[in-house]
Specification:
62% of the residues lie in helices and 5% in strands. The protein is mainly alpha-helical. The protein has a domain of 63 residues. The protein is elongated.
């Protein structure tokens, strides 16, 4: 019986497969093999034992069905793997899982899964960046109304709006790369973190195992890796989810019929917008992103609780972490790739943007205030003059320019300067330069990532 929507509705197979039962088993077996390799390297177990363990692991002789069969009897997940592996070994059967504890395997395996998830999420964000760059390059000078408090503000460009998004996504990439070494740590020091069962070479064995597995290791641990690492991972994921919801919310708002400046792609030939209203074209992908982002962020709460353990370890983190890291990773990938899809096929209504900019003269109030001040009128006096003129226009149903003229603005500046101050094209400031800087920074960072991502 399938219960989780992840099994039939949400998430991509590429990420879900990282957290599947079969993949988890294979990773844990590879951790056991790496432990045997390191122990053999330092003379703790015979080389023949390691080679035998490695052969069994590499040949996929240990089957998930057998592991489950054993677990149904002994009621211990890791020991079931250990016994199933031991059954298949000859020279190595006396040395499987030697000197280690269950969470040496569990946490090191989780580090590998997190590393794989991070690599995909980084690739997702790079894909999102490229979609944003394309929009920015094509719309550096696409003028539109800026909005604050849900009200019209000064003019901006669509390129600038998306440059803000691009810079934000790049900061997420920076955070991931800066924190990666902390988020993908394992440990191989036994049930209380002393490494006593591994003898005097315990620290070297731990370092060797983690080197083989391509992960970092704890400096000091209890039975488990510090959960501050998982909390940091989920915190970065949550931060990304906030950005995805922010971007999606902007698309939803600008798709409203009374605005209709941006819109998701809608397949008019076959897509259904509503079961009752056939005319509807809803921003369903953006709404889905928002919904999943809100769920995703909730997974950090139980992980905060998991960071509090009794003494060197209890079991209160175990069950919840079967949800937190897999679900958050799968949903993060899902919403980033959906957001990329929205941006890659975005309908941009440039004509409506331009019409609205020129229709609402009030968006030039800041420009007029600046023009007056530059022409010698004290700034506060300029502000008050423009404010009163605006209120006069609202009350008397005049255009902004009509109100300015009635209130005597030509006593302060001439008609040419007023016309220039009322031109939205002349008041987008450094928007184009900001777009170019954002693109350059993103391209430079992507070049850096191409050499760092899979180290």
């Amino acid at each position: 019986m399938i219960v989780s929507p992840l099994d039939y509705r949400y998430g991509r197979e590429e990420v879900k497969s990282i957290f599947s039962e079969k993949t988890r088993l294979n990773i844990m077996l590879n951790v056991e093999s790496a432990i045997a390799q390191a122990e053999s390297y330092y003379g703790l177990i015979p080389e023949k034992a390691y080679l035998d363990i490695k052969k069994v692991v590499d040949s996929n002789e240990v089957q998930l069905s057998r592991v489950k069969e054993i677990e149904s009897s002994i009621n211990h997940d890791v020991m079931s793997i250990v016994e199933a592996l031991t059954e298949k070994c000859t020279e190595g059967k006396n040395y499987v899982h030697f000197g280690v504890t269950s969470n040496d395997i569990n946490d090191s395996a989780s580090a590998i899964q997190i590393k794989r998830a991070i690599n995909i999420i980084v690739s997702d964000l790079i894909g999102l960046n490229r979609a944003l760059i394309k929009i920015i390059m094509e719309n550096m000078e696409t003028i539109m109304v800026g909005r604050t408090h849900g009200q019209h503000a000064s003019p901006i460009t669509l390129g600038l709006k998306f440059s803000v998004y691009l810079a934000e996504v790049n900061r997420h990439l920076e955070r991931i790369m800066e924190a990666r070494k902390r988020m993908i740590a394992g440990k191989i020091l036994g049930p209380v973190g002393t490494g006593a069962a591994l003898g005097p070479m315990a620290l070297q064995i731990q370092e060797k195992v983690c080197e083989i597995l391509g992960i970092t290791h704890e400096t000091a641990s209890t039975q488990i890796v510090g959960r501050d690492r998982y909390i940091e991972f989920l915190s970065i994921i949550n931060n990304i989810s906030v950005s995805m919801e922010k971007f999606a919310t902007e698309i939803r708002n600008l798709q409203r019929p009374e605005i209709y400046e941006l819109s998701e792609y809608f397949d008019s030939d076959k897509q259904v917008g509503s079961s009752s209203m056939p005319s509807k074209r809803n921003p369903v992908v953006s709404e889905n992103i928002v919904s999943l982002a809100r769920l995703l962020r909730s997974f950090i709460i139980p992980e905060y609780e998991a960071g509090v353990q009794w003494h060197e370890r209890d079991l209160t983190n175990s069950a919840l972490e079967r949800f937190t890291i897999p679900y958050a990773s799968i949903l993060a990938d899902d919403i980033i790739t959906k957001m990329t899809g929205v941006f890659s096929h975005l309908f941009i209504n440039r004509e409506e943007m331009r019409r609205r900019v020129y229709e609402d003269q009030f968006i030039m109030s800041e420009s007029v205030t600046i023009a007056l001040t530059r022409n010698g009128v004290p700034r506060q006096k300029s502000h008050e003059f423009v404010r009163k003129s605006s209120m006069f226009a609202y009350e008397n149903k005049l255009t902004f320019k009509e109100a300015l003229l009635k209130n005597g603005i030509l006593n302060y500046i001439n008609k040419d300067k007023l016309d220039e101050a009322m031109n939205p094209e002349k008041f987008t400031g450094s928007s184009k330069e900001i777009c170019e800087i954002a693109i350059k920074n993103s391209e430079n960072f992507e070049k850096f990532l191409s050499g760092e991502l899979y180290d």
